[in-house]
Amino acid sequence: MAAKLKKGDTVIVLTGKDKGKKGEITSVNPTANKAVVEGLNVAIRHTKQSAGSQGGRVAKSMPIDLSNLAIVDKDGKPTRVGFRMDGDKKVRFAKTTGDAI
pLDDT for 12-59, tens place per residue? Predict the structure, then answer.
């Protein structure tokens, strides 16, 4: 199945502690149905000091389920993603505006 959300997309969180916040997807794991969004769903991880790093408390973005994310259209509102054929190419489009993503 084609991916509705991809790396680099700007998304908004629909549910959870970060509801309403926007961010950019840094990675997607389709098998686990999760994505990591930069600056959202942040957890504190404690790391040991090593020769290359200081160590201590490090903020890390954790994965969010894809069902809790919606892509942002040109108006800045959440929208669902559809697929259509433009000539020979399959393109994603925003359901609210009909514009290609």
Answer: 999 999 999 999 999 999 999 999 999 999 999 999 999 988 889 999
Give phi and psi for 66, each to the nearest 5.
-60, -25
Residue 56, CA distances (Å) to 13, 42, 43, 53 in order: 29, 16, 13, 9
d(CA 22, CA 93): 19
Q: Judge whether 41 and 66 are in contact, CB under 8 Å.
A: no
Distance CA 93, CA 62 (A): 27
- Reference 86, options 71, 99, 72, 70; nearest CA is 99
Place of tokens 């997807």: 25
pTM: 0.82
